[in-house]
Design brief:
Blueprint: E1 5-10, H1 16-26, E2 31-35, H2 42-55, E3 59-63, H3 68-73, E4 80-84, H4 86-95, H5 100-113, E5 117-123, H6 134-153, E6 156-161, E7 164-169
Parallel strand pairs: 1-5, 1-6, 2-3, 2-4, 4-5
Antiparallel strand pairs: 6-7
């Protein structure tokens, strides 16, 4: 079984979503997929469709582009909830000019209080070059802080690189190791 909160980190196209889906499936619990992405163009529409196809049927889909904490509070006990992803949610909140610190704290609290088992996917954005504009730098700092707060609260933290998981905190369930 998974702990109440797991965090799966990785770069773009690292395999983090696929790994997180395998974690969720490994529980054998009814699966809830909380999607945070918005499709503003054909490329993103195709990416969302590919993610849906990859995970297959058997998931209850919930759209929570902005009110992610509330979606977590509404989750029923005895389910596994996959949040994909915290990065898109944070980006949505940044563009809405929300108080990122307050909303990030509320999200972490909702993850901890969720009645279901929670797996959060998030991007590690701090390993590249320093962005050349203030908005991107603000986002990078906010994402790093959110990831740190989620990691502190989580009992399982996994980094995924090239499709390979590395447990940073806790132990990988045997059935999902490569």
């Amino acid at each position: 079984m998974l702990p109440n909160l797991s965090l799966v980190l990785g770069g773009a196209s690292s395999g983090k979503s696929g790994f997180a889906e395998r974690l969720a499936i490994s529980t054998g619990l009814p699966k809830v997929y909380i999607a945070t992405a918005q499709a503003f163009d054909a490329e993103m529409t195709a990416k969302i469709a590919a993610h849906k196809k990859m995970r297959g049927s058997g998931w209850m889909d919930v759209e929570a582009r902005n009110d992610l904490a509330n979606a977590l509070y509404l989750t029923k006990p005895g389910t596994v909830v996959l949040v994909d992803c915290a990065t898109m949610w944070l980006s949505n909140r940044l563009l809405a000019e929300a108080d990122l610190d307050a909303e990030s704290r509320a999200l972490v609290a909702a993850c901890a209080a969720c009645a279901g088992t929670v797996v959060v996917v998030s991007n590690e954005v701090g390993m590249g070059i320093v962005p050349d504009n203030a908005l991107a730098r603000r986002f990078r700092v906010a994402q790093g802080q959110l990831n740190q707060h989620l990691a502190q609260r989580a009992d399982l933290v996994v980094a995924v690189m090239a499709g390979l998981p590395l447990a940073l905190k806790g132990a990988l369930p045997v059935q999902v190791t490569p």
